[in-house]
Protein: NADP-dependent oxidoreductase domain-containing protein
Amino acid sequence: SAPKVKFNNGLEIPAIGLGTWQSKLGEVASAVEYAIKEAGYRHIDCAWVYGNEKEVGEGIRASGVPRSDIFITSKLWGTYHTRVEECLDETLANLGTDYLDLYLIHWPVPLNPKGNHAVFPTLPDEYTNRLITVPDGKRDVAREWDLKDTWKQMEAVLKKGKVKSIGVSNFSEVKLEEILPTAEIIPAVNQLELHVYNPQHKLISYLKSKGVIPQAYSPLGSTNSPLLTDETVVQVATRHALQPADILLGYLLAKGIVVLPKSVTPPRVASNYTGSIAALEKLDASDIKTLDGLAAGGKQKRFITPPWPVDLGFENWPKL
Ligand code: A2P
Structure:
């Protein structure tokens, strides 16, 4: 079975989870059911904004595996930073469960609560955090919403027992430093775009120093990925008689990073699980060093860069 990774709170997460972003209605339920029942997955990564949590829940129940044996993550959308429990309750109702194993702040970007919830909004007025105003104590003025207040609400739903662990996603070191000084609970994870072309070595070692586990989304390079045909990746795969996808995932697992490959194609769902474990066993120090050098050697690339109007503090993020 898959390796597990331990959080700073003592709880464990299966190191391989099924991603569900861009998994379409009509195909995601059966992919989730297959992943759990046939392919051995015990970890599903979801989000309110993916719009498919109802079907994900159906897939989980159809697998016949008890809820308590499955690790479920979901994420708070930006329009809900001022009302965390409301978003969480919607997710719980959609998934058909009464708790989550892990709940994350999806992006460090509070959006206008009256906004349109769009993933990549086009109307600045509807998404800039500068429009989120809250009464500032006794003074009758407005101020920007503060991420540390979102984190307070994340801590509150944890204390209530609705989620077992809390964490963040898409947080640079700068953004983490906005919440850590006042945090009672250190985030269990930071979920990031991580793969051989965007390894974020510096951020990963910072997270390690803080006891925050990195999780990799788009570990295969998302859709139409050039990673799967990268000459070096293919060479390493051929040498170990594995698939490129296996190498990409095994490389991250070897660094203690939790991987969240997305697929709705049963043979891929299956091979991403078994193949990444095989790669973890086969990759040696020189393979890791070779793969570590790809980004620095000129192949650095991010695939997921929504045009947020605030500086997230990431390296290699396109200029606003
Ligand atoms: P599909 O869901 O149609 O099978 P990432 O996890 O990096 O976001 O990558 C997801 C993309 O990679 C999806 O388009 C998915 O397609 C595809 N994919 C997932 N697993 C594999 C694999 N083992 N080989 C090739 N493509 C894959």
Summary: Residues 266-282 form the longest helix (17 residues).
